Amino acid sequence: MVNKSKASKKSSVKQKRKLKLSEIEDLSMCVFIVKKSIEDKFKAKIIENEGKILSLTYGTGVSRTSIFNSLKVGSDDVVIFFVTIRVEDVKKFMRTMSKEFELAVPGNGKGFVLDVNGYLGAKALFVE
């Protein structure tokens, strides 16, 4: 006799597997610009939400006010993430990242999506 509570727990656990090529419609490119101080946490959240980091680069963010821009006052070290994700998942992914890191609040970072026609070999990151 199978214990019902154990059986129900097993069925509720989401099995993660790599997708088949036929299960991927298209990909979107997401770009995020965030403070360097949250780089590791941001990277972990991308991976947790099934995004694939293609590249990241470092830079310096500056104030929007031109006088501060020339003086480099108010500048922060930033990280720019280039991430790819399935078109089917991009809305949920962006909503999650924006909410988790409060990207709507000025000074916390920026995130946007680029639709791409194709990216040679990018689907390989998602398949078996």
What this model shows, in words?
The longest helix is centred in the C-terminal third of the chain and has 12 residues. This protein is 29% helix and 28% strand. The two termini are 36 Å apart. Strands 2-3-1-4 form a 4-stranded antiparallel beta sheet, with helices on one face. With 128 residues, the chain is of the alpha+beta class.
- Please give the count of helices: 4
Biggest β-sheet: strands ordered side by side in the sheet: 2-3-1-4
| Percent range for β-strand residues | 25-35%
Helix content: 25-40%
Shape: elongated
Q: Structural class of the secondary elements?
A: alpha+beta
The H/E string reads HEHEHEHE
Radius of gyration: 19 Å
Count of strand segments? 4
Between the first and last Cα atoms, what is the distance in angstroms? 36 Å
* Overall pLDDT: 77
Give the quaternary arrangement of the chains: single chain
Task: List the topology elements.
Layout: H1 4-12, E1 27-35, H2 39-48, E2 52-61, H3 66-71, E3 76-86, H4 90-101, E4 110-115
Antiparallel strand pairs: 1-3, 1-4, 2-3
List its traits.
4 helices, elongated, 128 residues, 4 strands, alpha+beta, four-stranded antiparallel sheet, 28% strand
Provide a short characterization of the protein structure.
This protein has 128 residues and is of the alpha+beta class. The protein contains 4 helices and 4 strands, in the order H-E-H-E-H-E-H-E. It has a 4-stranded antiparallel β-sheet with strand order 2-3-1-4, covered by helices on one side.
